[in-house]
Amino acid sequence: MPKTAHKPGFATRAIHHAYDPALYHGALNPPVFLTSTFGFDSVQTGADRFAGEAEGFIYSRVGNPTVSILESRLASLEEGEAALATSSGMGAISAVIWSLVGSGDEILADKTLYGCTFGLLEHHIHRFGITARFVDMTNPENLRAAISPRTRMVITESPSNPNMRLADIAVVAEICRQAGALLVVDNTYCTPYLQRPLGLGADIVVHSATKYLGGHGDLIAGAVVASREHIDLIRSTGIKELNGACISAFDAFLVLRGLKTLNLRMDRHCATAARLAHDLEAHPAVEHVFYPGLDSHPQKALAERQMRAMGGMIALELKGGLSAGRAFMDGVGLATRAVSLGDAETLIQHPASMTHATYSPEERAKHGFTDGLIRLSVGLEDYEDIRNDLIGALDQLGGAATATQPVAVRDTVHA
């Protein structure tokens, strides 16, 4: 990208950062380097690269030209020093943990997390001599009371998957800094377009790039953004020697394609979700809607302070509980019953039996979401069509009143 007197904007960097077509025969898009290994012009060159004393590629598990462009671009968008692309979101978070936490250390995590992150911490990590405890971080004082000299890492999502709870990232980061613990924030729901945790004091950001960063439901990928020191360690330890969760060059190419429209897609996701959240909240069959932009959300002020806009994810509970929720999800026609999120298509799923099935019923109750919770990833279809599909399915439930009228809501974007 040509040098300018000012820092290019988000969209410009998402399209151009770290790539000069002139270096690749004028190719508009970065080439896909489908190679496992790289040749050296001498034995000494190979030795120097393996020792970290010379720049250059050695093996695509630890570095690839296509992947490097993606990593530089993600670091720029998250405003971090460096980034690491991985084969999945779980590959990203596990690489972070295996690289930076060891036997005898403790991890404190928010009480509600993506199901597989919870499963790793609750059901498996103790086998490696690491303790994991869960804290309700909607009140940072709970973290302050729980953190100890053994706490090496604190993990949170904001908003949380699936019930849209928020953590005050700046306050949590300060508590971690004072205790000497690393703060890891899963920024999958927001993307760097809506929220930048590093700027709020977090040490490490992780993503499931499968979701909004890719945006098209055609890849599996993850990412870590942090200081160069941490990224170098995670790359050489977590990826090279421990979990091996490297991204393929072709998947990196697909994420790069998705980044080009990230800001446009997120604006559309947010605008439609804001209107739908009000429509759903007004329906007589709905007990509660969880969306940070609603006045009923207890952390709306925090969301407005640390997020650019309120995102494209909605959770809701129906007055008829689980049975009504199942009937509602089976009654939709446009929305797709599927896990994942951030795609062009509107997706609807049941966390208790799908993405968060790693929680037992008792654990779900303890960690703050019910068996009847429904998670909705608002897509890019026309608002009226999504609304008619969802409200129509609600109207078909027994005892539901007639259809509510659309609610016009302006989704304010915060700088």
TrEMBL record:
Offer one example of a GO biological process linked to this entry: transsulfuration
What PROSITE patterns is this protein classified in?
CYS_MET_METAB_PP
N6-(pyridoxal phosphate)lysine PTM positions read: K211
Q: Which Gene3D superfamilies does this chain map to?
A: Aspartate Aminotransferase, domain 1 (3.90.1150.10), Type I PLP-dependent aspartate aminotransferase-like (Major domain) (3.40.640.10)
UniProt-recorded Gene Ontology molecular function terms: methionine gamma-lyase activity; pyridoxal phosphate binding
Cofactors named for this entry: pyridoxal 5'-phosphate
Q: Which Pfam families match?
A: Cys_Met_Meta_PP (PF01053)
Keyword check for Lyase, yes or no.
yes
Q: Which UniProt keywords apply?
A: Lyase, Pyridoxal phosphate
Stored CDD domains: CGS_like
**Gene Ontology cellular component?**
cytoplasm
Reactions that this protein is recorded to catalyse: L-methionine + H2O = methanethiol + 2-oxobutanoate + NH4(+)
EC code = 4.4.1.11
Broad enzyme group? lyase
| Family as reported in the entry's similarity comment | Belongs to the trans-sulfuration enzymes family. L-methionine gamma-lyase subfamily.
User: What is the name of the protein in this document?
Assistant: L-methionine gamma-lyase
Provide the species name: Nitratireductor indicus C115
